[in-house]
Amino acid sequence: MAENIFSKSGSAKHIHDLEVIFESSEARYGKKLDWKSYDVYDAASCLLRYLKLLPDPVIPVGFYDQFTAAINPDDFKGSIKSLQESILSIPSLNRQLLLYILDLIAVFARNDEANHMNSERLASAFHPSLLSRIPRNMSAEDHSRAVDTIVFMVENPDYFVLGMTRLNMQQPMDEATLEVSTTTAEEVSRSKSM
């Protein structure tokens, strides 16, 4: 597996070529792209560039405070519920893209021993495109809160990414379901550490 993916930049020429291909109807937006000429760093850099060029972060700027306020270190279940409600409050296309990107980040975070990209490093690479205020209004504390929020979602994918069915049905988990889900996630974590 490639080391430092999303941290190490790909070839500027390859990134540009990929952008042209993905924007071209003649190239079917990259559908039949032959990846032999490109490496994972080119693809990762192209994705980050695409996200950075969006007019708004994936979580729109107006939702920054709602998302970052949802994290309460003393209330895990409350944080989950607040974040689920926050995810439900953003526009549908943004929500779908957010869940897809969180799933992608979680896959790389689970393989951090091989790729040297833990959840914090991945969140730092993605947060300007996922969760941000207007850049000129971002303080160091705002950056830290955004990273912490993304790390929380990446490290608890069972409640966000894997719970997409409930989220797409426009319903946060109720207390009983959250209780069962929390127990199941804790049991899985314990069994992995044994």
Summarize the structure.
The chain is mostly helical.
In CATH terms, the superfamily of the largest domain is: Rho GTPase activation protein
Number of continuous helical runs:
11
Order of helices and strands: HHHHHHHHHHH
Main sheet properties: none
Kindly report how far apart the N and C termini lie: 25 Å
Can you give a write-up of this model?
- The chain is mostly helical and 194 residues long.
- The protein has two domains: 1-53, no CATH class; 56-193, Phosphatidylinositol 3-kinase, Chain A (Orthogonal Bundle).
- It is 63% helix and 0% strand.
- It contains eleven helices and no strands.
- The longest helix is centred in the middle third of the chain and has 19 residues, at 92-110.
- It is globular, with a radius of gyration of 18 Å.
Protein traits:
194 residues; mainly alpha; Phosphatidylinositol 3-kinase, Chain A; 2 domains; 11 helices; 63% helix; disordered C terminus
Write the layout of secondary structure elements.
Blueprint (H helix, E strand, L loop, with lengths): L11 H11 L17 H13 L11 H6 L6 H14 L2 H19 L1 H4 L3 H12 L9 H16 L1 H4 L3 H5 L6 H19 L1
Helix pairs in contact: 1-2, 5-7, 5-8, 7-8
